[in-house]
Amino acid sequence: MRRNNYQRVIQHVTLNQEDSVTKRVKRLSHLNINEIKTITPQDLLSTASGPRNRILLFDYKESLDLFRQVLNLPLASKNFETVLINVPHRLTTEEILRYGHIKGLFYSHEEAKKVVIGLGEIINGKNWLPRDVTSQLLHHYRHVVSAHTSPTVVDLTAREIEILRCLQSGASNLQISEDLFITESTVKSHLYQIFRKLSVKNRLQAIAWANQNLLS
Predict the structure, then answer these.
(1) Which of 31-45, 50-64, 178-192 has the highest mean pLDDT?
(2) Which of these, 50, 139, 125, 58, lies nearest to 92 by C-alpha position?
(3) Is there a shared CATH topology between the 9-144 domain and the 149-213 domain?
(4) What is the pLDDT confidence band of residue 116, given thresholds at 50, 70 and 90?
(5) Is the domain covering 149-213 a CATH 3.40.30.10 domain?
(6) What is the enclosing helix (H) or strand (E) of 147?
């Protein structure tokens, strides 16, 4: 079967390029997978509108620190697909959605050889998600579609759009308040208005609306 005519680039998003990538990622790069390059969050922010077909690879444990230190990573951008490795346990749907357009997820107990095979399939445009994750995402999006009755054009204020962007990045109410220099109670008030305008019930549904309707 003929392979795709283009190869997409895997970029490991890391806080410090001088620290070699995680041991697991090092092992992957030595097993006949195309070279895994590294990119800092700052590089990612400055190149968000760059070439398409890039695959962002996150090590789960490292990504927790990354999200605490860097807000508003453009993971909802259509330019990116994401892969998550070294996942120690089953994640909630909200945690999974934090990584944007996720194409692959690998638990920490999986053999490196299997991860390499999965990355090869992802490079060629396929998904590589565990059955439990696929079921979670299908359930979530079916619920969103059935509950989603709001029109694409919604009268959102500039501040409400800012807060939606923060939601897309996975920011908490406290993080949003610190980032936008407003109180948490003001954030909650804005969220109430956003949910009302979008005819959604929670953050996950608001994020799904934003992913579909806000320009990247």
Answers:
(1) 178-192
(2) 139
(3) no
(4) confident
(5) no
(6) helix 131-147
